[in-house]
Design brief:
single chain, Maf protein, seven-stranded mixed beta sheet, about 20% strand, XTP diphosphatase activity
């Protein structure tokens, strides 16, 4: 089965391809099909993910999978949330992972409460008009470090410290990260939903 991934993020594609391999699902980035990015005007992850999935399905004519994810910082009332990808631009930096991390550490320099969570919402639709989209959510709570630690992963992985492992996401192996990350948890839920709803054994007629 071929699914359009409504994202052009190579890091997301690599993670999700590995996670969905057991189902025999082939993920194709929307950019490879000439599909432009959809607007993301909403304030919640689920609304943006659904909009992106429907857009990709509409243009491609294929089933689509969309992920909307971000960092929710307790001291900032859950922000940057859906604005995570553009977080650095609020402070005069160019868009990008390294600048996002830099801006976050600067904004939290005097903040004592370091609690935060990486949150991911996955939405899958069989078509643009699918009345029953599959929705899965994952949350990985942790603490924001004072400086980046580790070389693996992307995004905020180097500054997201996980007390249960005693290290950041960027210090975990790909296998351990995929099993415990926000996107990994959401993907596991989505796999189970797809098995149950889309790949269930056909009844004899």
């Amino acid at each position: 089965m071929k699914l359009v991934l409504a994202s052009n993020n190579t890091g997301k594609l690599a993670e999700l391809q590995a996670l969905f391999a057991p189902l025999g699902v082939e993920l194709v980035r929307q950019s490879e099909l000439g599909i432009p990015e959809a607007p993301e005007p909403h304030r919640t992850f689920i609304e943006n993910a659904l909009a992106k999935a429907r857009h990709a399905a509409q243009v491609s004519g294929l089933p689509a999978l969309a992920d909307d994810a971000g960092l929710c910082v307790e001291a900032f009332g859950g922000l940057p949330g859906v604005d995570t990808a553009y977080y650095a631009t609020q402070f005069g930096y160019e868009k990008g992972d390294a600048n996002n991390v830099r801006a976050l550490l600067e904004q939290m320099a005097q903040v004592h409460d370091r609690r935060a969570a990486l949150v991911s919402t996955l939405v899958a639709v069989r078509s643009a008009d699918d009345p029953e989209p599959l929705v899965a959510s994952g949350r990985a709570p942790g603490l924001i470090t004072r400086e980046p630690v580790g070389d693996n992963g992307f995004g905020f992985d180097p500054v997201m410290f996980l007390p249960q492992f005693g290290c950041t996401f960027a210090q975990l192996s790909d296998e351990k990260k995929n099993a415990n990350s926000h996107r990994g948890k959401a993907a596991q839920q989505m796999l189970n939903l797809m098995r149950e709803r889309w790949f269930a054994p056909q009844a004899d007629t």
